[in-house]
Design brief:
The protein is α/β, with parallel strands linked by helices. Helices cover about 35% and strands about 25% of the residues. It contains ten helices and 18 strands. The strands form four sheets. Strands 9, 10, 11, 12, 15 and 16 form a six-stranded mixed beta sheet that branches. Strands 2-1-3-4-5 form a five-stranded parallel beta sheet, sandwiched between helices. A five-stranded antiparallel beta sheet has the order 6-18-17-13-14, covered by helices on one side. It starts with a strand and ends with a strand. The model is unreliable at about 175-180 (pLDDT under 50).
């Protein structure tokens, strides 16, 4: 600890130096009020704690000095010291912000408690600061989450013969005491009718967490809204246009940031699903009658994430969604769930997703989606998914 001490007894000052010096504390002991004030009012000096006599030169003057010291060192705890006969002065100092006090007994036994008392005050102040910072961070995270959730659609539409449901869930971590903390992030999904026949399905995932990831996905959401009116029926052209615009956005690519995107268009008349991947997981189809389940491509069918290279080219993939089937598009947080910090033990993976879908074969769409999140989260052994997750699940009835 770096300790400033204002003391009014030279003999005790020497003993204090011995008792506090054994722990290699950095001490500055001032034998006069004038010397103490010079050090205390020096704004270039920083102290972990200040110990001062509340009787020197007299209680009233000491109180005035204390108030000034508090203004100069707002974050530094001050501990007072007084003889037994002066304890009635203590209440005034405590009411004004003094953190603790020490009674100077005639035998000097109080010196045995100096180290413990000062250290406990410093530890208490640090703990309070940590709690304050943690609370502010929680407030910030909550604000970011509300901002993020404001762009997530709540009422989804689907053409005749189709049902659709979707869900976004922030990542969670466990902290000491087993309490979950929900993090802010940059996942996103959207579902909307492009025209009377074509339904757009998309999921996006900005790299990282926090405000930057959230603002990155907000930027992409804004761009999607701006160019939605162009009514792209070519998914690759749409993704390429979004990519070029995002490459000009520092909020996205600063520090190596990027966004993955799966953009698809379902034609309700032909049952064709045209899709383009910019680094996103490959869509999955589950045929309910046969229980056959498969990906619509391979990892080679995924293009470069958005916001990295302008002019990047993307591919169109087209698949027919069979009758009585389900289509799943998702961000990688669903598959990359793993137990605690034991990432080497494997992840929920595509196999886990497929098993969950098959287990929900006879359930309705909403329950199937709920089970998918439940199974992915259960795989983490209670530690929670460490990445945001967005999922869109579509059902073709006939």
């Amino acid at each position: 600890m770096r300790i400033l001490i204002g003391w009014d007894n030279p003999e005790e000052s020497d003993l204090i130096s011995l008792y506090l010096g054994v722990s290699e504390n950095d001490l500055v002991i001032c034998a006069t009020t004038e010397e103490f004030l010079v050090k205390a009012f020096d704004e270039n000096e920083t102290w972990d704690i200040i110990l001062m006599s509340i009787m020197a030169p007299d209680p009233q003057t000491a109180f005035e000095h204390f108030e000034k010291i508090r203004k100069t060192h707002l974050d530094t705890p001050v501990v007072g010291a007084c003889p037994t006969t002066g304890t009635f002065h203590v209440a005034r100092f405590l009411s004004a912000g003094m953190r603790a006090y020490i009674i100077r007994d005639d035998g000097g036994d109080f010196m045995f408690l100096l180290e413990t008392t000062l250290q406990s005050v410093v530890d208490s102040v640090r703990a309070e600061r940590e709690r304050f910072v943690a609370e502010r961070l929680r407030e910030e995270i909550e604000s970011v989450r509300k901002l993020q959730e404001s762009i997530i659609p709540s009422d989804l539409v689907a053409p005749d013969r189709f049902d659709v449901t979707a869900r976004y869930e922030s990542s969670q971590i466990r902290v000491f005491g087993g309490q979950p903390v929900t993090l802010a992030g940059g996942d996103y999904y959207d579902v909307f009718m492009l025209d009377d026949d074509n339904l757009v399905l998309l999921v996006g995932d900005a790299s990282g967490h926090g405000m930057k990831a959230c603002m990155s996905i907000m930027t992409m959401h804004t761009l999607v809204g701006m160019i939605r009116s162009n009514k792209y029926l070519d998914t690759a052209a749409f993704v390429a246009d979004v990519n070029d615009r995002l490459c000009d956005q520092a909020i996205v690519n600063d520090g190596g940031g990027f966004i993955t995107l799966l953009y698809g268009i379902l034609n309700a008349k032909t049952n064709e699903f045209q899709w383009t991947s910019a680094g996103a997981p490959i869509p999955i189809v589950h045929e309910l009658e046969t229980d056959k389940i498969y990906e619509l491509g391979t990892n080679d069918d995924g293009g470069l994430p958005l916001g990295i290279v302008p002019g990047a080219e993307y591919d169109i993939h087209t698949s027919v969604i069979p009758e009585n089937s389900r289509l799943l598009i998702f961000t990688d947080g669903l598959a990359e769930a793993f137990p605690g910090e034991k990432e080497t033990f494997g992840e929920f993976g595509i196999s886990g997703i497929m098993q969950s879908l098959q287990a929900s074969r006879s359930d309705n769409l909403v329950v199937a989606l709920e089970n998918l999140f439940r199974d992915s989260n259960a795989f983490t052994d209670g530690s929670g998914r460490h990445d945001d997750t967005s999922v869109v699940l579509l059902d073709r009835k006939n």
